[in-house]
Amino acid sequence: MVYFTERVLTGELVTAKDLLIRALAILDKQEEHQVAYKVCEAIERLIGAPSTLEQWYQMTGRNTDGSPKDLRQVCK
């Protein structure tokens, strides 16, 4: 499983993070779940994180394309 390290955020990034959290909360409150999901998806692309689906595959022990991992390579 791939773990992403926690980074120390600069003041500007902390402000941006807080604004995004507020924006997502507003979208959720207005039941704009698809828009909130698209915002999260765009942020993932901007920071180079794996997509939500790729993260799910990684958490469930699969390759990022969804195919099963070759257990012989994992157990080496």
Topology:
Elements: H1 11-29, H2 33-47, H3 52-59, H4 71-74
Strand content: under 5%
Low-pLDDT ranges = none
The number of helical segments is 4
On the 0 to 100 scale, the average pLDDT is 79
Number of domains: 1
H-E string: HHHH
Large-scale geometry: flat
DSSP strand tally: 0
Distance between the termini: 15 Å
The chain-level structural class is mainly alpha
Kindly provide the radius of gyration, computed on alpha-carbon positions and rounded to a whole number of angstroms: 16 Å
What's the story with the biggest beta sheet? none
Q: Which percent range fits the helix content?
A: 55-70%
Describe the protein in words:
The structure is a single chain. With 76 residues, this protein is mainly alpha-helical. The protein has helices at 11-29, 33-47, 52-59, 71-74. The longest helix has 19 residues, at 11-29. The two termini are 15 Å apart.
Short description:
This protein is mostly helical and 76 residues long. Helix content is 61%, strand content 0%.
Features:
mainly alpha; 61% helix; flat; 76 residues
